[in-house]
């Protein structure tokens, strides 16, 4: 068996299929993906329990699979270990609550019913309604960065705190508990302490409702379990992804001076270039695997009932059939249609909010700190995957100014 952490791990084992390659960086995907796109539409992928499923690398098939309801989110199986992830060590009541509201393990009508309860809070209009608050948070964090001794880590002082503070604000975590939220979700704490925190915030919003997501949830007609489960998913989903994208896009701009010039020459283009930021800095090497619920065919490609299927947004977003010269970071291109937020019924629920956060953070950094320069970034080297779902974390981005 090949060592999954070895750079050569994308060499196919004739019996067990490929493992996901670990030689890509967040800005430069492994050559494995370009090779696979030349080499057919689906590719054997070995999952952690030893079974072989299918990897989708081209944009058209990726989009078609993600929008096809004949694929289920269950059973939850992963291409990276552990084969059968142990459930979090929390009480049985908490485990039941977490499962009942976890959008990423629900299908069909139940998924739609639960997701509908948060729709109005995450529309374009709702996200833009947070712009002034987000702008103020971004300005404060840039000030904090500039108060550090040089050089300093932009991920620690800008990317992580903006994502955590905005998440807390939108969800309805009271100001005096934001540091606890950061402790649980950025620095990490036990599963039980984290779910206790979620229950406490939900309880608080039952008695102190406000203009925020969790206050809506407690009034939405969901069961108590579903409210806790959905609140838990929302507290964790996307927080790290926003931090990752701010950090990684900054590295992309600092290593592409001509694109940085384009942005600073014309700051009003910032909202339009967010799609290229997302495409070029894609965080998900593969999404949560889907399972075919029946024998089916899409665009001439056959899937059998029970097949595990992993879609790679990193690969789809570098597909030359969809994005000409895909390796070029180009703020002038139309990157609309990228799959960095997934697609279909499980496409990212918070993507409009994420767009505003990333635009404001990048805008604040590059307009306020014209001398910003890269000293070093973990993103420039292969980063270990952050999760059993193969994503990247925001590495340290050391900057000078
Ligand atoms: C740059 C930032 C973000 C990225 C790259 C991102 C990416 C994604 C992706 C790829 C998925 C789909 C996973 C799959 O299909 O397997 C997803 C789902 C989800 N995201 Fe995001 N996300 C981001 C920000 C956010 C934010 C700010 C929130 C707000 C709470 C959020 C909440 C969610 C939720 C709740 C789901 C599950 C949707 C469902 O299953 O119906 N995300 N995200």
From TrEMBL:
An MF annotation (GO) of this entry: oxidoreductase activity, acting on paired donors, with incorporation or reduction of molecular oxygen
Gene3D superfamilies: Cytochrome P450
Essential cofactor(s): heme
Pfam families the UniProt entry points to: p450
Chain spans, region Disordered: 1-25
UniProt keyword terms in alphabetical order: Heme, Iron, Metal-binding, Monooxygenase, Oxidoreductase
Keyword Oxidoreductase: yes
Residues in coiled coil: none
SUPFAM superfamilies named in the record: Cytochrome P450
InterPro entries for this protein: Cyt_P450 (IPR001128), Cyt_P450_B (IPR002397), Cyt_P450_CS (IPR017972), Cyt_P450_sf (IPR036396)
Family under the similarity heading: Belongs to the cytochrome P450 family.
Protein name: Cytochrome P450
Protein source organism: Kribbella soli
Source lineage: Bacteria, Bacillati, Actinomycetota, Actinomycetes, Propionibacteriales
